[in-house]
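Hi there. Long-time user, first ticket. I'm pasting a complex I've been working with (about 398 residues overall). I'd like to know whether the download I got is complete or cut off, because the file seemed smaller than I expected. Thanks.
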Amino acid sequence: MKVACVGGGPAGLYLSILLKLRDPSHEITVHERNPEGSTYGWGVTYWRGLLDRLHLHDPESARALDENSVCWSDGIAHIGDRTARHTGDQGFGIGRHRLLEILAARARSLGVRLAYDDEITADRLPDADLVVAADGVRSALRTRHADHFGTEVTAGRNSYIWLGTTKVFDAFTFAFVETDHGWIWCYGYGYSAGHSTCVVECAPETWTGLGLDRADEAGGLALLEKLFAGVLDGHPLIGRSASDAGAPWLTFRTLTNRTWYRDNLVLVGDAAHTTHYSIGAGTTLALEDAIALADALREQPDLPRALARYERERKAALLSAQSAARHSAQWYENLPRYINLPPDRMFALLGQRHSPLLPYVPPQLYYRLDRAAGQLEALRRFKRWLGPKVARALASRG
Ligand SMILES: Cc1cc2nc3c(=O)[nH]c(=O)nc-3n(C[C@H](O)[C@H](O)[C@H](O)COP(=O)(O)OP(=O)(O)OC[C@H]3O[C@@H](n4cnc5c(N)ncnc54)[C@H](O)[C@@H]3O)c2cc1C
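Hi, the file is complete. Here it is re-exported in full:
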């Protein structure tokens, strides 16, 4: 089979690896518009479950990923001048540049053709049996047939910016800072020996009130460094690496598609769906799409059936992450509801922000119920039973 993957992000590269591993006779090209080694963003998070799945599918790239990731198990939240800590949830961080370097090297070693500086336009699709739109959230291939795909985009309310820093956080670190224009917050985590990711977010009125909408890049970063001086320990925030195009302030776009394929064109990763960055899942979901598509293509020789199976499986698998992402984004948009709780309670509810119940239960009561549920199996089961029902009822009303 001749396969063209448009986009050399995690989804396109990992799919090319899996297809080549399963059948070395496949002729596979990854077309990436940027030069090799150039990408946006900083480090991304993932959890143990992903590593386990990657080990099953390609132990070699999984090992490289593991070796190049950093790991943390503590969380710390600075809320104004108060602090709360939490121990126990192990997470991993890896730099996007490093991740793509690993996947590209593995793909190349298996015989995948990697074409960099090669932008594909929607009216000049490569000649292939299967064209994979792995071209990210602004996918030109998807946009060309937006009506067919049933694309829907919802913009979040808050402004955010994805930054790096040379401060290496040894715990997953949150800092919430009150200003004359409302709260602004960041969260940071290490992803290499010398760098961390630092995502900053605030409500639009805080963004304009602080002048971040008008500041140039250096002025904006200087202001953020001052606001977050308490966690940065004198380290700078970095807007752009040498090779990427810079870090703009954005509002997050949650994207869904009614269908994920059209003839021999199929959507994967961010081109098919996005989940709010605050749940740190987009890369994991992109890699899992690649696994599901490679499985479907191997087990179902008929292309339309394979694509239908892939779409069905992934849409179902995504429901809980999409719900978690929606509620997590809303939690931050409703920050005033939680910010004045005692710090340990505020931090505990930050950890519960994915819950569909939390927006409808007074926060203090939810906290007490959650504590009790942690101790009582029956209550825990009741909560698990009630949560999806409330979510479904609310979704059908909206
Ligand atoms: C602030 C922020 C923080 C995040 N943090 C995390 C995190 O902690 N954990 C996590 O799992 N996820 C995180 N994500 C999400 C994650 O970055 C994406 O979900 C993931 O990169 C999706 O992978 P992809 O391969 O689908 O798309 P992308 O990584 O976007 O790759 C698409 C590629 O296609 C190329 N391309 C586009 N158009 C064309 C064209 N016409 N021709 C050729 N090439 C083209 C692009 O240059 C790009 O290289 C975060 C996102 C944001 C915004």
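A couple of notes from our side: The chain is about 40% helix and 25% strand. Residues 160 and 250 are 5 Å apart (CA to CA).
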